[in-house]
Amino acid sequence: MPAPPKVPLVLLPTPLHRLDRLSEDLGIDLWIKRDDLTGFALGGNKGRKLEYLIADVLACGATAVVACGAVQSNFIRQLGAACAIHGIRCAAAVMDRPYYAAAGMPEKAAIGPRNANVRIDGLLGVELHHAEDGDWEALYAVQDGVIRDLEAAGDKVYKMPIGGSSVFGAWAFVNAGREVDEQLTDIDYLVTSSSSGSTHTGLAWHFKGTRTKVVGISADPDPDRELVDDMVELAAGVDQFADAAKNVTPEDLDLRLDWVGEGYGVPSAAGTNAIQTLARREGILLDPVYSGKAFAALMDLAKSGQISGRVLFWHTGGIPALFAADRE
Ligand SMILES: *Cc1c(COP(=O)(O)O)cnc(C)c1O
């Protein structure tokens, strides 16, 4: 299968630089990949995925895209911008606090429902369909309802997977890995936030067989242990695009679940501390849902000696969510 086409949306390569103060604090050689600085709709890892996803939307001849997610979804914000550029109608089913049925609804509230990303979605013309809180399956059912309504109104609809995690999203991060090869070598560990899985999968695919071990820090509880299986499937799709079989197995996908805290979208004390640490030592901002929790993990893993040597932290963006959190 030929490699898929893309439409340009983000400014590449994103910067990669060393964190001198935290390298010293943590006793590692710490670097950061700045996907918060894609130059596209306030940055974040979804811009890379959308370059391939929107090319597929256009190839399908779709007139509308229907997504779903938490109301503060960074993906929906960036999708809205990508659809605006290409004249595609953009709708999304959202919940304030979607959760995993087996984990139950977290007691604490998720980050605030009405400002931040939601405000930008409005500016971009995204049609948000708010549903009552429920589990992810309930949210997918609302998404299907929105798709039916748009089709009935005459649109040709492209159904967006959660977080843009189809094989196109994973493929974007294979290419992101290739981009890093031009910027920094001899990386021992790469630490990234992970949720719908295509960021982690693409990077793990690219670095399989090298010295670089990719560690994903989950933003979601995974009571049914489904995330890694989904990622193995994505990686198999990448094999086809790449015309090269890396045969990624569950053992190749190091996904850590210990830094989720009380639930998806609920800020954690460790995450808040990590956000403050990076802000106060390096002047760089992280978000409370994903990158703050991932950086908390990086600090813990470095302090306990589980990661060492040259470490690359992948900044996946998400900064608008800082304006949705009640307080620091
Ligand atoms: C979506 C997102 C992630 C997770 O990426 P996936 O590819 O969905 O696993 C991490 N950080 C931020 C800021 C995000 O918006």
Could you characterize what this model shows?
This protein has 10 helices and 10 strands. The chain is of the alpha/beta class and 328 residues long. A 6-stranded mixed sheet has the order 1-2-10-7-8-9, sandwiched between helices. It has a 4-stranded parallel sheet with strand order 5-4-3-6, with helices on both faces. Helix 2 crosses helix 3 (74-86). The radius of gyration is 19 Å and the shape is globular. The protein starts with 15 loop residues before the first strand and ends in a 13-residue tail after the last strand. Residues 44-46, 74-75, 163, 165, 193-200, 287, 290-291, 316-318 line the site of pyridoxal-5'-phosphate (PLP).
Strand and helix layout:
Blueprint lengths: L15 E3 L1 H7 L2 E6 L11 H15 L3 E7 L3 H13 L2 E7 L21 H8 L2 E4 L5 H17 L4 E3 L7 H15 L7 E6 L3 H10 L5 E6 L8 H16 L11 E3 L12 H14 L8 H13 L6 E6 L13
Parallel strand pairs: 2-10, 3-4, 3-6, 4-5, 7-8, 7-10, 8-9
Antiparallel strand pairs: 1-2
Helix pairs in contact: 2-3, 2-6, 3-4, 6-7, 6-8, 7-8, 9-10
Brief rundown of the structure:
By secondary structure, the protein is an alpha/beta fold. It has helices at 20-26, 46-60, 74-86, 117-124, 136-152, 167-181, 198-207, 227-242, 269-282, 291-303, and strands spanning 16-18, 29-34, 64-70, 89-95, 127-130, 157-159, 189-194, 213-218, 254-256, 310-315. The chain contains ten helices and ten strands.
